[in-house]
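Thread: Modeling a multi-component assembly for a lab meeting

Hi all, long-time lurker, first post. My supervisor asked me to bring a structural picture of a complex we are working on to next week's group meeting, and I have zero experience with this. I have the sequence lines for every component (568 residues in total). Could someone generate the structure of the whole assembly? Inputs are pasted exactly as I received them:
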Amino acid sequence: MSLPARIVTLLVAFAAVVAGAVFLVVNYIASSLPTVHYVASGGVVNVVLQEDPQNNDPSNPDWVSYYVQNPQTKQWVHTTLFSVPKHTRVNVTILGYDGCTPLRNNYWSQVQGTTGSTVTVQQFATVGKPIDSPTTTKMINSWSNCAVAHTFAIPSMHLFVPVPSPNTALFNKDACGVSPCTSGPHSQETFSFMSPDHAGYWRWQCFIPCGGGFLDGNGGPMQTIGYMTGEMEVSA
Amino acid sequence: MAESQAPTAAAGKAEPNHAVRIASIWLVLAIVADLLIYFVWQPHLPPGRMSDNARGQQFDITVMAVLCAPVLLGVWTYFGYALVNWRRRAGDTEDGPPIEGNGKVQAAWITVTSLIVLSLAAFGTYELIVPAGAGGGEGPVPIWKPSGVVTTAAWTPGSTHTLVVQAIGQQWNWTYRFPQFGGMETTGLELPINTPVEFHVTSLDVIHSFWAYQLGVKADANPGVDNVAFVKPLQLGQFVVRCNELCGIWHGAMFDYGNVVTASQFQSWATSIQTKERANGTLAALPPYATTYDPTEISQLGQAWAKLGIVGAGGYYYPGPQTGTPGDPVSP
Ligand SMILES: [Cu+2]
Ligand SMILES: [Cu+2]
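Re: Modeling a multi-component assembly
Sure thing. I ran the full set together rather than chain by chain. Output:
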């Protein structure tokens, strides 16, 4: 092969590799999940999440999943990425539509890192129909009554919150079967924490091995951003 | 080392003794390098001076560097000397002299390198055994233990009694249990200074690895295995705990910071957590302290399953809609 031919071959091969890498990166970025942005008003920001027994993504419809509520449209977004401003009081509301699974480490039954180290919990037969009054508690024992569906944890902030499952009898009768859930028995849990003082990304996850069908329950949704784990972006 | 065949000298000039010249240059460089390594670099070498293990590891790395630097400098000196003195001069078209081996150089090379490697093997073995495993995990029945320490059911400040700390890996956080404080569990790790600590490292799911970097402790966290490692913290301050075994999507985020504090600070930290966990029900909700946590052997967990109407997980913790045999990954 002549020298010019070799140079051309080399350049073409190099360009092909670069194009392949660029395609992969662009494809990855384009396919990444949407982020729901929460803006503070009056020094607080209200984050609303729900936990579903299934989801509306045709690729893994039977995976348990979190949803994040868009604060403007009130639409439920199938993502686990949200952003909050820095150094702001974050009020979180989690609607628990999924049934219980025992924790592997029951230590996570303890509420940690929230304001007052407590959560406030209330049970609903369906949206707008409470069946008890709100209770404030420091722990929800996932082993004694199988009362915990998932957890919400931001480990690097030492924030660990067990999220209760709905009333078992009601759940067994008419659990929400279409996601995102807008009716059906659910728990409602509220708690607060201060967002970090500097911008960045904080990983959050569930500690219940809730990946049904996966070895030890720790695969699938537990390992996939958009389902049982995500990131909280703290903006400046 | 570095003895060589001298190329034919330029006509009329006496050939200098190259071996002596190379050896002299090398000796000066090696002495300077070793002095710098020992006295200047050593205090900054990893993992620092925070514990007995860390100090031992820093010393070991220094010894390695002190031995390796002369070898490296020997090679570099020979190369440099050859490049400067034996390069082809303008107009020199003569062949170099044929080289047909040199018994003395070969014998010296083999002897010296064998001595270095064998003595390092002996040194390494000594440095692993004598400091009670040097901070590495020794499995459930450690054969190298710190001498003159005792483990008692309770731990009090100022004692030479071992503090027992269990490090539990799970996707993706470390928690710690303190059997001498009622089996309380924490997400943070505080350790008392000048106190022998006995780590029991295990996992609740996949394989993790407990790596307390500045303490010089690294032990694999295997589910169903109790991996024991010893350390004695010698300096106050912060250390980092990392997971050192690829364990899933958040492996890279599986790190946290611990602190070496005074014995009385540790005592009040530990008792305050114990008191809090007794009051809020966490202590009662935990399984009894054990060296491993096999989900199928935790009776409270079994009872929770039974309440769900699930009997026997068939080797799986999560008894979902799965097929296949235990031990094989399955898809839903
Ligand atoms: Cu979960
Ligand atoms: Cu890990």
